[in-house]
């Protein structure tokens, strides 16, 4: 059994002694009444102030807080770092998932062949009063409000520190729950195989479209043509390359 002290250690990517993290944590928890209150405040801050966006996973927690955005891995790593900075034991939960499906209807057909069928989703474990609970800061409030009415996976996670709350991933899209880890630096150091800067930027244009659109979709099949129209107006080069890729299934 891994000792709880391992969940309070700094690592290369969980660099909670960074001054930016230390300063922010002290400000967030300064009026907290107990450990649970501190943990919930830190969870809410990461959930909503670090906007969900696609990014490379090999980012330190200090890099994520400075840039102000990240995907599940980045945001969970930052939350673990901030909890440890507050002297609250925290670790990483890892799910093996079908990345082509686990995003739900929000995953457009044009993106499916650009991601792996076997990927991971990283969430957080927090130890409060000797009990481990799960929480997931991935989807921010703004993105949830724009998408959760047609996409169950982006339902806003409401965590109060007493019970497990993670993203609503359909069970059939989860291969395996690998459990709790005190350190995932070895995983963060692995270079992406299918991910590149072009795919990253195109994916984030899609997230930007979802945040900006005033459309209320009644059918998920409406989303892709609307996004392509938006892309044509705003980022023509990416519209051309995305259209070409769709034609030739690249």
Output the keywords:
250 residues, alpha+beta, C8orf32 fold, four-stranded antiparallel beta sheet, 10 helices, globular
Task: Count the beta strands.
Answer: 6
First and last CA, distance: 46 Å
Give the strand order, joined by hyphens, for the main sheet.
5-4-3-6
Query: SS-based structural class?
Result: alpha+beta
The low-pLDDT segments are none
- Major beta sheet summary: 4 strands, antiparallel
Radius of gyration: 18 Å
Q: Any idea of the CATH class? A: Alpha Beta
Strand content: 5-15%
CATH topology: C8orf32 fold
In CATH, the architecture is Roll
Descriptive overview:
By secondary structure, the chain is α+β, with helices and mostly antiparallel strands. It has a single domain (4-193), classed as C8orf32 fold (Roll). 41% of the residues lie in helices and 14% in strands. It is built from 10 helices and 6 strands. It has helices at residues 19-29, 35-49, 61-67, 72-85, 109-112, 141-147, 185-188, 197-212, 223-234, 236-248, and strands at 51-52, 69-70, 90-97, 119-128, 131-135, 174-181. The strands form 2 sheets. The chain has a 4-stranded antiparallel beta sheet. Strands 1-2 form a two-stranded parallel sheet. β4 (119-128) and β5 form a beta hairpin. α9 (223-234) crosses α10. The longest helix is centred in the C-terminal third of the chain and has 16 residues, at 197-212. It is globular and about 50 Å long. The chain starts with 18 loop residues before the first helix and ends with a helix. The mean pLDDT is 93.
